[in-house]
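Q: Here's a chain of 228 amino acids. Please give me its 3D structure as tokens.
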Amino acid sequence: MAKSNPQSVYKAVQTSRLYEQIVQQIEEAVKALREKGLVEAFSGRGTFITNGTSQSIRQSLDRMLKIGQPEGSLQLAEVRAILEPGIAALAATRVEASHLATMREAYAVMDSKRDDPEAYIEADLDFHLSLAEAAANPIILSLIDSIVGVLREQRIRIFNVAGGPDRGQFHHKRILEAVEQRDPVRAYEAMRAHLEQVREDSQASSPQRSSMNSSAKAEEPSFSKAIS
């Protein structure tokens, strides 16, 4: 009796309709669990049960975000502006090949999915989470994971701002290049510029807030004039 070739059997299973249905059901189940905050999926690394601390932080920030819109979104953007430039700089000195591979993959997905909000935003999250992982500090990873999770809705609004994805990709490329070259100063400045763009797009996505800020800026004396 001829022995079956394991590779042939595996290939036959992979191309079967039943296999496709099983994979689809698993993906839907993981998506449902992720939306409930029970698991976290990381591109190229797998799916993991959520850390209790991270989940607690996420729930607290989620409540703040919902109560304080649009102020909550802008306040979270300010927190990111405080944290993430330093994280990018640290990541540039500690990054490993696996982190770079994930960041490159996420960048490529964003580049090809500028007309697909869900795919673009998930890749955006993967990009920033990979930076946090590269920093090799579990506290940083927990904090940034919590923040980018609750910013998913804000990212959707930013995506819908005219030119938002294109501006985001411009900055993502600069961040990736700086990290690839292990240049912490450039990584810091690239992330700082990116988060300034995020803040501006957040304001543009909220007409009322944008109008209020424009009025405030018109009345506010410049810093250089104040000290001259």
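Q: Can you summarize the key feature?
A: The first strand starts at residue 39 and ends at 42.
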